TrEMBL record:
<protein>
    <recommendedName>
        <fullName>non-specific serine/threonine protein kinase</fullName>
        <ecNumber>2.7.11.1</ecNumber>
    </recommendedName>
</protein>
<keyword id="KW-0808">Transferase</keyword>
<feature type="compositionally biased region" description="Low complexity">
    <location>
        <begin position="313"/>
        <end position="324"/>
    </location>
</feature>
<feature type="compositionally biased region" description="Low complexity">
    <location>
        <begin position="358"/>
        <end position="386"/>
    </location>
</feature>
<dbReference type="GO" id="GO:0004674">
    <property type="term" value="F:protein serine/threonine kinase activity"/>
</dbReference>
<feature type="region of interest" description="Disordered">
    <location>
        <begin position="351"/>
        <end position="386"/>
    </location>
</feature>
<keyword id="KW-0418">Kinase</keyword>
<dbReference type="InterPro" id="IPR000719">
    <property type="entry name" value="Prot_kinase_dom"/>
</dbReference>
<feature type="domain" description="Protein kinase">
    <location>
        <begin position="18"/>
        <end position="277"/>
    </location>
</feature>
<dbReference type="InterPro" id="IPR017441">
    <property type="entry name" value="Protein_kinase_ATP_BS"/>
</dbReference>
<keyword id="KW-0067">ATP-binding</keyword>
<keyword id="KW-0547">Nucleotide-binding</keyword>
<dbReference type="Pfam" id="PF00069">
    <property type="entry name" value="Pkinase"/>
</dbReference>
<feature type="binding site">
    <location>
        <position position="47"/>
    </location>
    <ligand>
        <name>ATP</name>
    </ligand>
</feature>
<dbReference type="InterPro" id="IPR008271">
    <property type="entry name" value="Ser/Thr_kinase_AS"/>
</dbReference>
<feature type="region of interest" description="Disordered">
    <location>
        <begin position="286"/>
        <end position="328"/>
    </location>
</feature>
<keyword id="KW-0723">Serine/threonine-protein kinase</keyword>
Length: 540
């Protein structure tokens, strides 16, 4: 943001008031930061909304102007929505023409619904309660003329008391912006998009209800019924295939069957859907013999998306999630219009949010479910580490994973590396590009698998090679984290490689995180050699 006099890069202060502390995530529509409001002395989430292409203002200034105007209009409309289940917007920083706005929001600290689902499916009572409150949030937004267009688990945050909060209305800001959609891009996450939106129609509020019902289906079943090995295959399934009846939904079965139909006019409206959810919750409460089965492994062609440890946004990964976390990219998938046919060219970028990744540190041997590999996915037959490296969050485990990534792909520049005890996620740069990357996952015994995600880094990130990182410092850093971060009963640990940042001159380094099931977290930040440069303990 070229807003001289308003931002102090040395202190990272926006508008003379909001001190940026840590990147929560970034993607195609900007970067989200954890920040401190220096006036009110409270933690907030600050999002700078900017296009995925940093050169947009130069090659299409009219598109950049429309984006800025629409973001401001949608943010102001959302700020007027006073609802306990809608993320609260505290402030908008507008630097005037030629700049992109910053949106200051409440920081929701209870993790996301994606984090909750990482532990296994919900029972129908819990799902119906979450569904009713998200439906109420959508109703409030629809009444203000705002469609969400990307309802999914990563965009439903949970307060510490479990109450859901709908967030990341970011893609609504580019709806109908013709200069931005002239290239034919689809806006949304394909798994949760209603068929009418995939086929190029606007959809209206009924499309948000489809997304909500699909989210509830995933919540109770533990897998997505239409996810396939590639993006095109998933979109084709959404367009042409019927949703199979759920097996674990119990009294929610009828609710899901009535909403997940391709004809929007045949779906119940919001008022009727609320009555159905109330009835389902009451029926479920009375059926004491309902079998609450333990989570089972989903089919390979329908496994849930990756999920982030509590406290991480995603980026997918990400979101635009608004909780303390490392820089995260995953989830809001932005295809180059608000309408596109499946046969069209698909170019994906990510927003903060995206779905998240969860791992445990107490002897866990089973990794959380991840996105199923694309049709072109391959696993290196020689990639399995030794028994000593089964815990990948060790020097040998990290070296094994990095070597497997480089051998399998022939690439050695990383846009991201996140290491959990059970698996490692990497953004590997496309050869000849400093921004475009493909996402890969490494697991013990499975080797390297390619995800469906291909995207680009934000304008202030630079890819790195990892040969200069001192992984031997990781055990000592984990021990120091346990001593100094003051996280009560930590059950999750992970390491993130921090990219050099052009905006503030940040060097490459590492961040070691600890968190617990309540999303209470802290982290150590180091340089590439493992020298600690910052300690951010849990401040509860």
């Amino acid at each position: 943001m070229n807003d001289e006099g308003r931002d102090d890069p040395a202190r990272r202060v926006v508008d003379g008031r909001f001190e940026l502390e840590a990147r929560l995530g970034g993607g195609g529509m900007g970067m989200v930061w954890r920040a401190t409001d220096l006036v009110l002395r409270r933690s907030v989430a600050v999002k700078e909304v900017r296009p995925s292409d940093p050169g947009l203002a130069e090659w299409d200034p009219e598109a950049a102007r429309l984006l800025r105007e629409r973001v401001l209009r949608e943010a102001r409309a959302l700020a007027r929505v006073d609802h306990p289940n809608v993320v609260t917007i505290h402030h908008i920083v507008d630097g005037g023409p030629g700049t992109y706005p910053w949106i200051v929001m409440e920081l929701v600290t209870g993790g996301s619904l994606a984090d909750r689902l990482a532990a296994g499916p919900m029972n129908p009572v819990e799902a119906a309660r979450i569904g009713r409150e998200v439906l109420a949030a959508l109703g409030a937004a629809h009444a203000a003329g705002i469609e969400h267009r990307d309802v999914k688990p990563a965009n439903v945050l949970l307060r510490p008391d479990g109450r859901p909060v709908l967030t990341d209305f970011g893609i609504a800001a580019v709806r109908e912006a013709t200069a931005l959609t002239a290239t034919g891009s689809v806006i949304g996450t394909p798994d949760y998009m209603a068929p009418e939106r995939v086929s190029g129609k606007d959809g209206g509020p009924a499309a948000d209800l489809w997304s909500l019902a699909m989210m509830l289906y995933v919540a109770v079943e533990g897998h997505h019924p239409l996810r396939r090995g590639t993006t095109l295959a998933t979109l084709a399934a959404v367009l042409a295939e019927d949703v199979p009846p759920p097996l674990r939904a119990g009294p929610l079965t009828d609710v899901l069957a009535r909403v997940l139909v391709r004809d929007p006019a045949a779906r119940p409206d919001a008022a009727e859907l609320d009555r159905l959810l109330v009835r389902a919750a009451r029926q479920t409460e009375s059926v004491t013999s309902f079998p609450l089965q333990p989570p089972s492994a989903p089919p390979r062609d329908a496994s849930p998306q990756p999920v982030v440890p509590p406290g991480v946004v995603p980026q997918d990964t990400t979101p635009t999630s608004l909780r303390p976390a490392p820089r995260r990219r995953r989830t809001l998938l932005l295809l180059p219009t608000a309408a596109v046919a499946v046969a069209g060219a698909l170019v994906w970028t990510n927003l903060p949010d995206t779905d998240s990744h969860t791992s445990g540190s107490k002897g866990s041997t089973t990794a959380p479910a991840t996105t199923s590999p694309s049709a072109g996915s391959t696993a290196s037959p020689t990639a399995a580490p030794t028994a000593a490296a089964t815990d990948l969050l060790t020097p040998q485990g990290i070296r094994t994973a990095v070597a497997a990534f480089e051998k399998q792909t022939g690439r050695d520049r990383f846009g991201k590396l996140t290491v959990y005890p059970e698996y490692v996620i990497a953004y590997l740069m496309v050869k000849g590009s400093d921004t475009a990357y493909d996402m890969y996952t490494y697991r013990v015994g499975q080797g390297v698998q390619k995800d469906i995600i291909s995207s680009s880094l934000t304008g202030d990130e630079t890819p790195v090679r990892l040969d200069g990182f001192d992984w031997d410092k990781v055990p000592a850093l984990l021990a120091q984290a346990r001593r100094q971060l003051k996280v009560p009963d930590p059950d999750s640990r992970y390491l993130v490689v921090d990219l050099p940042g052009n905006a503030f001159g940040d060097p490459a380094g590492m961040s070691v995180y600890l968190s617990n099931k309540y999303s209470q977290s802290g982290y150590l930040q180091t340089d590439a050699k493992g020298k600690v440069v910052r300690v951010v303990p849990y401040d509860g």
